[in-house]
């Protein structure tokens, strides 16, 4: 596992191996639309929200950004981010809300950049970042409840249910989700 300060991180491939069911749901949700919302931190620490395309390729989640764009400069300075899948039209939450958080690792290797550019059919220059995850969350509505499925490195998927009343949220026992954990990297 990598680390963001004291928070462990893992690659998309490691998350997918540990939690294939949730990874499939997340990937499918991002695949429903091209444009998503990326939250980064400005120089003064305030949040910046930008549109972005998320790309799953070669077992990884990639973020490509225009040269010297504000969001690229933000994650070059402070790699922490959150990426929300486009929720779509209306309020139906088709497929639920999906968010991944983590650290954007800039790729500067010319061969990797060329391979990626060729694969997506876009000319260089651009900034390319590989995602290292610290958290994955899917929020959906089931009946009268909000259901949160959350994962972070070294933990199993947790399912938390919350009704539309004063009752406290409750954690649901594991019901056959893949439940893997990601081993530490050497």
In short:
The chain is α+β, with helices and mostly antiparallel strands and 186 residues long. It has helices at residues 12-18, 20-31, 70-77, 110-120, and strands at 2-4, 7-11, 35-41, 47-57, 60-65, 80-84, 97-107, 127-142, 145-151, 158-162, 170-172. Helices cover 20% and strands 42% of the residues.
What does this structure look like?
With 186 residues, this protein is of the alpha+beta class. It is built from four helices and eleven strands, in the order E-E-H-H-E-E-E-H-E-E-H-E-E-E-E. A six-stranded antiparallel beta barrel has the order 3-4-5-8-7-6, surrounded by four helices. Helix 1 packs across helix 2. It is globular, with a radius of gyration of 17 Å. The relative contact order is 0.20.
Which short descriptors sum up this protein?
single chain, 186 residues, alpha+beta, six-stranded antiparallel β-barrel, 4 helices, 42% strand
SSE order and pairing:
Elements: E1 2-4, E2 7-11, H1 12-18, H2 20-31, E3 35-41, E4 47-57, E5 60-65, H3 70-77, E6 80-84, E7 97-107, H4 110-120, E8 127-142, E9 145-151, E10 158-162, E11 170-172
Antiparallel strand pairs: 1-2, 2-8, 3-4, 3-6, 4-5, 5-8, 6-7, 7-8, 8-9, 9-10, 10-11
Helix pairs in contact: 1-2
Number of discrete helical segments: 4
- Number-wise, the strands total 11
Would you tell me the structural class of the helices and strands? Answer: alpha+beta
Helix content, binned percent: 10-25%
Q: Unreliable segments (pLDDT under 50, ≥5 consecutive)?
A: 176-186
Mean pLDDT: 88
Oligomer: single chain
Spell out the helices and strands N to C. Answer: EEHHEEEHEEHEEEE
